[in-house]
Specification:
The chain is an alpha/beta fold and 641 residues long. The chain has helices spanning 3-10, 13-21, 26-38, 43-60, 67-99, 110-120, 123-126, 168-171, 204-208, 230-245, 259-264, 288-302, 306-312, 331-341, 358-366, 393-410, 417-451, 465-473, 514-524, 539-544, 552-556, 567-590, 599-607, 613-633, and strands at residues 100-106, 131-134, 151-154, 161-164, 175-178, 181-187, 190-202, 214-225, 250-256, 270-277, 319-324, 346-350, 373-377, 482-487, 505-508. The chain has 5 domains: 3-65, no CATH class; 100-247, no CATH class; 263-384 and 463-508, P-loop containing nucleotide triphosphate hydrolases (Rossmann fold), CATH 3.40.50.300; 388-460, no CATH class; 514-633, no CATH class. The chain is elongated and about 115 Å long. The termini are far apart. Bound molecules: adenosine-5'-triphosphate (ATP). Residues 403-431, 551-575 are annotated as: Disordered.
């Protein structure tokens, strides 16, 4: 297509004159010479350019300016810019290679979180123009003033003011972190460059399982001037310290991560699920002797000199505890309190988790840090029993014992030798029958599963005893950790699991004794004052008790005694009230039948009367009666709460 003729037709006559007049200028000649070099497809473009050039030229020449000169200036500027860009890239590359240090951090690593938290708290970063907003959920124990998040509502009858959290999500601010790209900031007077980048990787393992084929991975590159990475290391250390600063009085609770996380193995198999305040040891009501025994055992084991002692004697460095007893008696509470005392993170695995496989278990044990508490919950219920079709001699013995004890209970004790022989024969017959019956039941169950289209091998999934033992004492187990296993049914445990070396100390938890009931009561109403905080339970409220409803003002503003909390006044008040509480506690305990209620049940009762100890004392009789009746009948409905 001939553009020149086209435009000549389209443009006014003066434009076509201009194009004709200038068609012999030097610029035209240059363009005509250059155009074959760029290929024929650019010809229309060149021609279009020349039209505009001629149009502009006719106007510029009126001011005495040569368009060819301006064009040359532009050409030079462009060339200079290109050369400068090349030089800049080369110089920057040289500086980066020879005069800066870099450290890369992958988003798979915890340091990434430390750095993000640090950066999100830096004013220079928060005020940056390129940010990423993240929804940030704080834990219930984070010390953040949330008073501005609250709105209050007058109740329907206008009688009280209650806190209202309906708007908290709307008002909670997001966290701002540097967006993808380059940023700079100062730390201790030194300039740092941060480059946040993201790449999408092909995830073969996931793709093979039919999962997502690609996953995003972020990387932070921290750089600073100088040939030593020390300043960056100091920055990372600072970020880590800041991250853990508020963790000092907290216990970090970790649980197995999602299935995807577990695939990575190692530390990535675990995820932090809570960061809660340390549970004081005194809040766990347990026989003092037992407490001291566990504490001193753990203390000795965790001593820095212990690994050498174990190594010199060829003993594997590990320590196992078995906490057994009825539900709600404090097994988990003691484990958390122990982790708090020794400042260790606690890694909790429930063997009831149906998604947990043996491979997961060993990879989880592989990912344990050097020192930690591992809490293996409910080890009796974790499908440790082998499938009935490959009953081991051990399981058979259990069955024999169970059936023999059943028959012993069912019959009167034989007195004569003949009777005994006959009875033994009966027992052995009956146990054989029991084993046979168990096998038949298992066979029927498998057949049914097959009929319903289920997986016939399904019952073999989960954690087998050997899988658990491998995880506990195989190479995967990280030496140095404290293993606490809890169970409600110690009698169901395989002896192999609790042999010395795997379980070194057993702690029995029981339902509350009267002494423990008294301690629980005192703990519930103890003076709750610590410097810098407003007391939650006040003795004014104890004196005021007897009223059947809670004063709404107590819900929003704690009652402060007249004259404030003067030191002497506080001590005096504390002394009197502690004595009073102790008396009420003794009366309360005398009404609790020993060994009937778990501490959790007593705690539940007291919690409902947490500001009114006298009321608790008045009502405990009726509660005990109703609960005993409920336990006797096996009912689930609680009539007195
Ligand atoms: N001995 C105790 N001292 C103080 N509080 C206790 C005690 N036992 C139970 N509690 C309270 O009861 C609740 C449940 O306790 P915990 O989870 O420790 O019991 P558990 O024995 O681990 O129960 P489960 O066997 O069902 O896991 C907790 O809130 C805890 O504070």
């Amino acid at each position: 297509m001939d553009f020149t003729s086209l435009i000549r037709d389209a443009l006014p006559t003066f434009a076509s004159n201009i194009t004709q007049d200038r068609s012999n200028s030097s610029t035209h000649r240059i363009v005509e010479t250059l155009s074959p070099l760029f290929g024929t497809q650019f010809n229309p473009l060149f021609k279009l350019f020349m039209i505009f050039y001629d149009l502009a030229g006719s106007r510029l020449s009126r001011f005495g300016l040569d368009p060819a000169f301006i064009l040359t200036i532009f050409g030079f500027a462009w060339a200079l810019n290109r050369i400068w860009a090349q030089i800049y890239v080369a110089v920057c590359g040289a500086i980066r290679s020879y005069f800066t240090s870099n450290i890369q951090i992958s988003s798979n690593d915890e340091i990434f979180n430390h750095m993000m938290k640090y950066l999100s708290s830096q004013p220079s970063m928060v005020n940056s123009r390129f940010l990423t907003a993240e929804t940030w959920t704080r834990s219930a124990w984070e010390d953040v003033d949330e008073s501005d998040l609250l709105t209050t509502k007058i109740s329907a009858d206008g009688s009280g003011i209650f806190l209202n959290f309906s708007n908290q999500e709307a008002k909670a601010p997001p966290r701002f972190t540097p967006a993808l790209g380059s940023h700079s900031f100062y730390f201790e007077g030194r300039w740092f460059k941060l480059h946040r980048k993201q790449e999408t990787l092909y995830d073969e393992a996931s793709a093979n399982r039919g999962g997502a084929q690609y996953k995003d991975k972020e990387t932070l590159v921290l750089s600073c001037y100088g040939r030593s990475p020390k300043p960056i290391k100091a920055l990372l250390q600072h970020a880590k310290e800041q991250y853990y600063a508020d963790h000092n009085a907290k216990t970090i609770v970790k649980r197995p991560g999602t299935h995807n996380m577990r695939r990575f193995g190692g530390r990535h198999s675990w995820q932090t699920v809570a960061n809660r305040p340390v549970r004081p040891m005194k809040t766990v009501v347990l026989d003092a002797k037992q407490k001291i025994q566990v504490l001193s055992d753990m203390n000795e084991y965790l001593h820095p000199a212990t690994p050498k002692w174990y190594a010199n004697r060829g003993i594997p460095l590990r320590r196992g505890f078995l906490f057994h007893g009825p539900p709600g008696t404090g097994k988990t509470s003691l484990s958390f309190a122990l982790a708090g005392v020794f400042g260790l993170d606690i890694y909790v695995i429930s063997l009831l988790d149906p998604s947990l496989t043996e491979e997961d278990l060993s990879s989880l044990f592989n990912g344990l840090p050097r020192r930690c508490v591992v809490l293996l919950e409910d080890i009796d219920t974790a499908g440790l029993a082998r499938p009935p079709d490959d009953l081991s001699p051990l399981a058979e013995t259990d069955l024999l014992l169970a059936s023999s004890s059943a028959s012993t209970n069912a019959t009167t004790t034989p007195t004569t030798k003949e009777d005994r022989t006959a009875s033994e024969k009966d027992k052995s017959c009956s146990s054989e029958v029991n084993v046979e019956v168990t096998k038949q039941i298992a066979e029927i169950a498998r057949g049914l599963r097959r009929l319903m289209g289920g997986d016939p091998g399904a019952e073999k999934k989960g954690i087998s005893l050997s899988g658990l033992l491998n995880a506990i004492d195989g190479v995967a187990s990280h030496e140095g950790r404290v293993l606490i296993m809890t169970t409600n049914k110690p009698e169901n445990l395989d002896t192999a699991l609790i042999r010395p070396g795997r379980v070194d100390l057993q702690v029995a938890f029981t339902n509350a004794t009267q002494e423990q009931a008294k301690e629980l009561f005192e703990r519930m109403y103890e003076y709750d004052f610590h410097p810098g905080s407003t007391p939650k339970t006040t003795f004014a409220s104890i004196q005021e008790e007897g009223i059947s409803t809670v004063d709404p003002s107590e819900l929003t503003t704690p009652t402060i005694p007249a004259g404030g909390y003067g030191q002497e006044e506080k001590t005096e008040e504390k002394r009197t009230s502690t004595k009073e509480i102790s008396d009420i506690a003794a009366q309360f305990a005398s009404k609790i039948p020993p060994g009937v209620f778990s501490p959790a049940e007593l705690q539940g009762f007291l919690l409902k009367r947490k500001k009114t100890p006298r009321k608790a004392l008045q009502e405990v009789g009726a509660w005990v009666e109703a609960m005993v009746e409920q336990k006797r009948s096996g009912g689930r409905v609680i009539t007195v709460q």
